[in-house]
Records
---
Amino acid sequence: MSSKDKIADGPVLPPKPDLPDCCAGGCATCVLMDYADEMAAWRAECARITAEFDARKATENPR
């Protein structure tokens, strides 16, 4: 997508950890678990923005 096609900025997608970042040792605070938490928060923020947009669109264009 070119910059002229960009409509709005959204939440920043968390960077995926590199495989060497995980030692596969079962750490209590594994970078992959942190990434999963960050992705869940990102998805929730995307859902919140979508719901807000849909609600605004519905009030501006009632059928």
Note: Residues 24-63 form one domain.
---
Amino acid sequence: MRAPGHGGYTVMEKAQVFDAMIAWAEMDIKPVADDVLNVETAANSTYGCAFARNKVGPDDSPAAINTRSTIAPALAAWSSG
């Protein structure tokens, strides 16, 4: 997920990542991911947007809630294009 730090993940995103990690460890189902080693991919304004869920819940931190407004333009551009 594209975020300006590591504190901007929602509870839903953390749960999805954890589930994907368990599926990989227990069933050898490798999760889909952005190519973090590709400089062009990482520099793209839509990098990480495929994995962002722009919904917040009552258990989300202020950092996660604030991140949603920060990344909203990139998410909108990615989903429309």
Note: Helices lie at 11-27, 39-43, 62-80.
---
Amino acid sequence: MQNDVTNAISTFEDRQKPEARARDEALSTEMGNSLVELIGIDRKTARVPAVAKYR
């Protein structure tokens, strides 16, 4: 049980971040802006690693 409590405490912030982001996005669209406009940071796309070139 102690391990469950410790795990729940350590992952609390990670579980709250998506909810907070959704709440912030909803509030910003309600005000007529997008969250990206307000913060100025766009989500970065995942970059595909280059294929290794061997001779």
Note: The two ends are 56 Å apart (CA to CA).
